[in-house]
Amino acid sequence: MVKLSLIILICWLAFPAYSLGISQGYEFGPGDSLSISVYQESDLAYSGQISQQGLVDLPLLGSVNLSGLTQKEAKSHLEELLKDGYLVSPSVSIQVSSYRPFFIYGEVRNPGSYKYQPDITLEQVIALSGGLKDRASRKIWTIQRGIDKSTFVAQSSTIILPGDVIKIEKSFF
């Protein structure tokens, strides 16, 4: 039993990208489509896309910024707004209908935007985009991620998230 626990711990530490996957810390952003409901309040339901400004237009509340919030944070935020003079004890449910696309450009055969697929790796994205061109780097692949647009060098096993911008550099050799 101890050996099995040790193996699981080693795998978890060896693959940190999976521990930060879409289910735990994903932040909503422009282009995500959401379905929002309030328990026993069908008039307050919302189904639509987050605008380019990060807003959704909700009944009673008007325009609410959900960009940069996780599902849990958005749920709490909406419940607090509804408690402020509207409902006694609201229970909000948020589901993602569809995620925003990711983008790939540079030295790939078919650059562009692609529909997000859960747990897709960079290697799979390169294959989806037609593969690498002859002069493509085999090591220098960068990803721009999140609201703050942080950039990092990725590996073939890196998990791609919605909204990622992937650049495949040109090789000098």
**Count of DSSP E strands?**
10
DSSP strand content: 25-35%
- Could you name the ranges where pLDDT drops below 50 across 5 or more consecutive residues? 1-23
Distance between the termini: 49 Å
* Strand order of the biggest β-sheet: 7-6-10-8-9
Output the radius of gyration: 20 Å
**pLDDT averaged residue by residue:** 85
Shape: elongated
Oligomer: single chain
Enumerate how many helices there are, as a single number: 5
Written as H for each helix and E for each strand, in order along the chain, the element string is: HHHEEEEHEEEHEEE
Return the structural class: alpha+beta
Helix proportion of residues, in percent?
10-25%
Report the sheet with the most strands, covering strand number, pairing sense and barrel closure. 5 strands, mixed
List keywords for this structure.
173 residues, alpha+beta, three-stranded antiparallel beta sheet
